[in-house]
Amino acid sequence: MHKLIPARNGLAAAYRLFKRGVAIRTLVETELAKPDGIRVPTDLDKQVRAYLADHPDVPWDAAVARIAGWTKR
Predict the structure, then answer these.
(1) SS3 59
(2) Residue-level pLDDT at 18
(3) How far apart are CA 54 and CA 67, in angstroms?
(4) Which of 3, 36, 62, 63 could potentially form a cystine with 51 if both were Cys, beta carbons 3.0 to 4.6 Å apart?
(5) What is the pTM of this model?
(6) Does any domain span residue 1?
(7) CA gap 73, 57 in Å, rounded
């Protein structure tokens, strides 16, 4: 069986992509190892209900993501 190997610039692009993935994984692991110190709003349930009242087609977890600033919708 003969393996197809991309040209030099294709290999370089793949290498860069994998190296960025390693850097991102390291950043995420480092951040997740820290105590989060994230304060959850005491009225989160109220905020979720209000968001869902205005956006009834949105799942509850998407509402939480929006309230947390994960999405900009």
Answers:
(1) coil
(2) 98
(3) 13
(4) 63
(5) 0.61
(6) no
(7) 13
